[in-house]
Every structure is written in C-alpha cells, then in structure tokens.
Amino acid sequence: MTHSKIGQLADMVRGVAAEKDQAEMSAHLSDCRTCRRTEEILRKIAGLAAWDANHQVPAYAVHSARSIFALQQPEKVYFFPRVMGQLIYDSFKEPLPAGLRARHRLTRHVLYQAGDYSMDLRIEHQQGTTGVTLVGQIVDQGHPDVPPAEVPVFLVSGEKILAHCCSNVFGEFQLEYEPQRHLHLYLQGNKDLQGNVELPLDRLAAEEPPRRTKRKH
Q1: How confident is the model at residue 214 (pLDDT cuts 50, 70, 90)?
Q2: Do residues 194 and 137 both lie within one domain?
C-alpha cells in the first residue's frame, strides 16, 4: 500500500487540496491507520495555527520580551586573524657578565613581536620551589600611549589551560604555573587588541631553574 505524502495530507486538512486529490485521500484514509494518524496530528496543528492567528499579543508583552532579550544578549564577539608571535630578544642568549658563575639564572627576559604589537615577558623561577611566575606587558607600537586593556590571556599546555587572566589598563598581566611541556601563550583579540596572538613558549631554549645542592658534612 502506498501511503499519502505528508504534504498532500497537510493540503487536505487546510482545505486547499484539489477535489479529486481530496476524494482519493479520503478513500485511502478509511483503510490506512498510519495515514489516518498522521492526518489527525496535522489537523490538530492546523487548528492551533488558526487559533494563534486569531489572537494578538499585547503590546506590553512584546515590549517586555524585547527588553529581556536585550539584557541577555551576549557580549560582542570579535573575529580577528591569528598572528604567531616572533621571538626577537632572549636574555638567555646574552653572555653572562664577567665574574658571574651561576649557570642557571632565576629570571629570563624575552620579547615577542606580532604585527603591530610587542609582548614583553619576564619568566621568573620561584627560588626553592618548582613554581614559575610569568609577568608580561602588551604594547601597541602604533599607539604606545594606549595599552591594550582587558585582553584575555591564556597559558596552555597542549589542550590544558594552566592559568589565565586579563591585562590591566597598562596592558600588564601576571600568571603563575608549574612547568609543563608544549607551552603556548594565547592573547585573545578584543576592541584594543586587533588580533588573536599566539606565543610559542615551547620554542624557547630549555633552561632549568637552579637546584638546591646538599652540603656534605
């Protein structure tokens, strides 16, 4: 048995089907429970639609709904290209001053460039612990007097977020974390930072924090 198409049944319940088609479908419905069930559902939907069309929503309800929607609208989303930062300075590549015998240095200073922005980073190993503090500042080279503020900053290892914060009004930020592999620093673009910046910290030359040595008695 060939069942009636749902479009044909919809036309039938709305009274817009041709007389011949309607007669054929009526005869089919008397013998087909499946199509008859579909026809009943469509008839209920058509009734609800007709009822809804005859009722006007009060103006105050429309105004309230629009006000609630405006309050709950998501913040503006900025779509910017991704820019990979280039390392242009690394203090660990500088020779140690004469007389300084420590192989491991507590603080590392690096500078990245990404388009019109520079990121000045200081990586400080916390003495006596394995913790690391990363202090940074974002500078817009085109507008150095107007630092990018409230820029979301994420420190990521693989797909895991180790730490995150937002830059302050001076473009400064600070993160604390435990050393991990595959470190990347992401700066999410906003109204002040016109780009999504990625800094591949894992490309820095490996350098371990100073280790404590046990004294022999």
Answers
A1: very low
A2: yes
